[in-house]
Structures
1.
Amino acid sequence: MNKRTLPILIGNWKSTPDTLQNAIKIVKLLEKKVLSAHPKLPKKPYYLAVPEIFIPHIKEISSGFIGSQNIGGISLGQTTGATIPSQLLTGGADFTLVGHSEVRKRGESEEERMHKVALSLQSKFTTVLCIGESKRDKEGKYLSFLEEDLKESLTLAPKNLFDYLIIAYEPVWAIGQSVPATPQECFEVVISIRRSLVSLVGMDYAKKVNILYGGGVHKDDAKIFLDEGGVDGLLIGQASQDATSFFEVIKNCYSK
Ligand code: PGA
């Protein structure tokens, strides 16, 4: 797999917008803005995780990478209401999010998650595994929690496919908030994730994995995570749901 262009900026539209027409409007405006910023931005300056049903339509008009927010039907046999990776591939998806805290809250089990990660990697999807603690404690137990979560989620993941893997650190307490974690709080976790990856699969494989931050990121605080938070990119929810604010995040992240 080719090396990814950094920073990796992934919008997570969640369950927005309400119609395909509105989704197309947002992407067309975003594309216009991206085009007008050439050559300051690379060819594919963003990733966008959209509602599954929009993927083929958005793919046609976007210069970015388009992905799904979840995958399903894994190891469970026939399942109603779940889209399996090969279906997402034929729909044009370039990447998947796995283990987002909002999916976990709806009852995703650890076992399902480890199968999802493995299958997504085996399907050669760029696979963004989301991990994050619900709360922090003074003793640093959240770091052991994250390490354990990471280990479990990667149990079935073949290490020779680790160049398709991205880890998104998303503290649950920062998601959907107006204020994100601090870059220092992020940095500490990034170091710990890197250490855990090295002890899991060794340095050669661990260094192939990009790490992102997500949770409460907006245009004014996006760049500081890249400069001081030790991450290779960002996972952006609310601020990606509008063309102007997503473009501002992208532009600021690429500014010197
Ligand atoms: P937020 O969401 O940027 O709205 O906090 C991030 C996410 O849920 O991925």
Note: DSSP finds ten helices and eight strands in the chain.
2.
Amino acid sequence: MKKETIMFEGKPVVKNQEFTVTIEGLTAEGAGVAKLDGYTLFVKDAIPGDVARIAITKTKKQYGFARLVEVLEPSKDRVEPACPVAKQCGGCQLQHLSYEAQLLYKQQKIADCLTRIGGFSEIPMEEIMGMEEPYHYRNKAQYPVGVDKDGKLITGFYAGRSHTIIDSSHCGIQAKVNDAILPIVKAFMQEYGISSYDESNHKGLVRHILTRVGYVTKEVMVCLVINGNQLPQGEKLVEALQQIPGITSITINCNKEKTNRILGDYCKTLWGQDYITDYIGECKYQISPLSFYQVNPVQTKKLYETALEYAGLTGDEIVWDLYCGIGTISLFLAQKAKQIYGVEIVPQAIADAKENAKINGITNADFFVGAAEEVLPEKYQQSNGAMAADVVVVDPPRKGCDQALLETVLKMAPQRIVYVSCDPATLARDLKYLCENGYGLQRVRGCDMFAHSYHVETVCLLK
Ligand code: SAH
């Protein structure tokens, strides 16, 4: 294919050429947007209002990419990032944007998707739910372990779009207890000559350090993901980790595959319980290393309370919680409903959901394993409509709901649909379909589950 030449002021634009621009927008992935004579450039680490020196890194026909060389005049929303490695680390994309501006950006992102993709002209948008303290909010971390070019043991997070580990023992969004755990694991590995995993040749032992923390209970889990079946001198690690306040569970997870997947299927407990417990509101949940569990407990509570409010339950309703995971939303709603049915594709998650119902004394929740788009129509038909929903809650993964599922929901014709979404684009697509088929969008509210990243969660009510 012939390479496109992009022209500026009569001359071709070439790689590494520098320009001074004003940043005008922010993409859905958090990159700054600048224009060169109408030609669009995406500039990582730049934010609207910055006047900046940028250098071209790549040009395509419709748009190009540039790197931020220097901020000449900072945007009024620019702040000093909390982490010294914020620019290199791929974990956060927006630490240099003030938190208030992050919230406005996320709210706007939801509105843009609903307008552009959903075709909605009036959006019943409520104020986005932000965090009071948007740091150290995560209850789960997965640190890759490796060595730097001098062979020194390092842990941290990957750089954006790569598997290069940015060495850092402190993370601005993770639980503070991790700052004490990482040095203990590293010292243990050094003292006993335990190798780190090298994905280029599939050799070495320790791949990741997984930690989980109970926000309410303060229980701590440490799980070493290893390329093997056993951790030599594991008892020494157990001994050293005893000094961590709240330590409840020390496990290994075996992952011997050549894969980007972090966790393998098999866990072994070295010490303590094989799970930790935590609460969201009054509900208690058991969380094992392999379970999906929302990572921001403070915001999860707000999200579920909003879902509960939107569901408008009086105690007489049959509620379907589709894509229910370990039943977190189901159990949250169960106290206010007649009957809950949860559907989830991962069998282990349904086992956890049943167990969680039991430990909370909840008897009006039933759970089914399977694809929601198959289970829902099947149960609806088998029961001759007796299992028809009064309220449907969906919380799908990023790709949104399957068309077959939405069709069955339309057939069931619930009074209310509560849509919880982690991707405003697929949310807008699905809402468009539901609203073309009889439903009306009544309420929309963003919830910031992932401060300093470009992600945003949305709750919607349809009637
Ligand atoms: N509602 C839960 C989990 C939401 S995450 C919570 O708040 O914790 C989305 C869930 O959908 C994941 O647990 C994933 O395993 C599940 N999932 C993905 N595809 C599915 C499908 N086709 N049918 C049912 N569940 C599915």
Note: The mean pLDDT is 96.
